[in-house]
């Protein structure tokens, strides 16, 4: 418990955060913050973390061995995200540093966005809007701008944690035929949702909509490659709101070019931001969003506050409201 020494613990915040989150930190800690809404430059991060007890970071901050070697006093890292692939967990573990993250807070917002992205992709909303604005809307026409529908569709999930399950609950109201999922372990919630566990091959072969919502790690890296796209249905709509790294993007370009699948909706890419001249931007049937899954204001406020609470409680030696157990 660093508070008992009567010296306030030091915390570094890697982004300009809202007042409410800062107030939680500032009550108990000496806080230094990067003042930008853009990512903190690496040199600036390294310069500031030498003496800190706590680090408040976001998913663009790569917290690797180099950072950890400099941050000799670090006791807790709290990331404003559910994903933690930007943290070198092995190195963190070796040093006995605690980690806080923000699952639960963003489940509903991310599920909502994923449903929106799916509908935008399968019903061609972005393309249709551009056509309307661009003077291509000449008359109502029986088969113009037709997309594919969720009704009677088989929806497959790669990864079926909190977010996947919330997406499934929402999609069921669209009268889907069946919900399938592939994950390492069977999910107890699947029975209530009416979702069936299948292996990866079956997921690929049967899904009309295939939604990626797994966590990103070495076992999921590049999982959606040419081989996988070839095994998918030609009418399949591929949706990813997890991490870009789960997809081999060059292979996705081939899949779209060769019409191996019907379309793709991506809230995440590699890199982020995706360069505007990237091949994926050239496909009308590929909807790309700038990683906005959790970007609902109430959700982000909750994430920001929880990130602060995780730091303060860890430094007090109290149980963290949301500690990552590894
Ligand atoms: C996360 O939390 O990991 C999302 O990608 C952003 O909210």
From TrEMBL:
Q: Where is the D-isomer specific 2-hydroxyacid dehydrogenase NAD-binding domain?
A: 115-293
Q: Does the keyword Oxidoreductase apply?
A: yes
Which terms in the Gene Ontology molecular function aspect does this entry carry?
A: oxidoreductase activity
Can you give the residue ranges of the D-isomer specific 2-hydroxyacid dehydrogenase catalytic domain? 11-324
Question: According to its UniProt record, what is one Pfam family this protein matches?
Answer: 2-Hacid_dh
Alphabetically sorted, this entry's keywords are:
Oxidoreductase
What top-level branch of life does the organism fall under? Eukaryota
| InterPro entries, per database record | D-isomer_2-hydroxyacid_DH, D-isomer_2_OHA_DH_cat_dom, D-isomer_DH_CS, D-isomer_DH_NAD-bd, NAD(P)-bd_dom_sf
PANTHER family according to UniProt: 2-HYDROXYACID DEHYDROGENASE-RELATED, GLYOXYLATE REDUCTASE_HYDROXYPYRUVATE REDUCTASE
Q: Which family does it belong to?
A: Belongs to the D-isomer specific 2-hydroxyacid dehydrogenase family.
Protein name according to UniProt: Glyoxylate reductase/hydroxypyruvate reductase
| Species this chain originates from | Cryptolaemus montrouzieri
């Amino acid at each position: 418990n660093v508070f008992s020494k009567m010296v306030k613990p030091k915390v570094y915040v890697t982004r300009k955060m809202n007042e409410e989150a800062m107030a939680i930190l500032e009550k108990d800690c000496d806080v230094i913050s990067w003042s930008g809404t853009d990512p903190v430059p690496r040199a600036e991060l390294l310069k500031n973390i030498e003496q800190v007890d706590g680090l408040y970071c976001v998913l663009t901050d790569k917290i690797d061995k180099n950072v950890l070697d400099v941050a000799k006093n670090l006791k807790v890292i709290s990331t404003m995200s559910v994903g933690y692939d930007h943290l070198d967990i092995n190195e963190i573990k070796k040093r006995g540093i605690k980690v806080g993250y923000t699952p639960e807070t963003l489940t509903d917002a991310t599920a909502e966005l994923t449903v929106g992205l799916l509908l935008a992709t399968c019903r061609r909303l972005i393309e249709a809007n551009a056509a309307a604005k661009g003077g291509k809307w000449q008359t109502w026409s029986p088969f113009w701008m037709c997309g594919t529908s969720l009704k009677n569709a088989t929806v497959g999930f790669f990864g079926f944690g909190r977010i996947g399950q919330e997406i499934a609950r929402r999609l069921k109201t669209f009268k889907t035929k069946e919900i399938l999922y592939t994950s390492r372990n069977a999910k107890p919630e699947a029975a209530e949702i009416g979702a069936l566990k299948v292996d990866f091959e079956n997921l690929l072969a049967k899904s009309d909509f295939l939604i990626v919502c797994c966590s990103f790690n070495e076992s999921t890296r590049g999982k959606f490659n040419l081989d996988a796209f070839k095994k998918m249905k030609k009418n399949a709509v591929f949706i990813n709101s997890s991490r870009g790294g789960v997809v081999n993007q060059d292979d996705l370009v081939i899949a779209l070019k060769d019409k191996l699948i019907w379309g793709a909706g991506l809230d995440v890419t590699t890199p982020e931001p995706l360069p505007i001249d990237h091949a994926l931007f050239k496909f009308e049937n590929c909807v790309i969003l700038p990683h906005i899954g959790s970007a609902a204001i109430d959700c982000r406020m909750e994430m920001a506050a929880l990130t602060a609470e995780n730091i303060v409680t860890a430094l007090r030696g109290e149980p963290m409201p949301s500690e990552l157990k590894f």
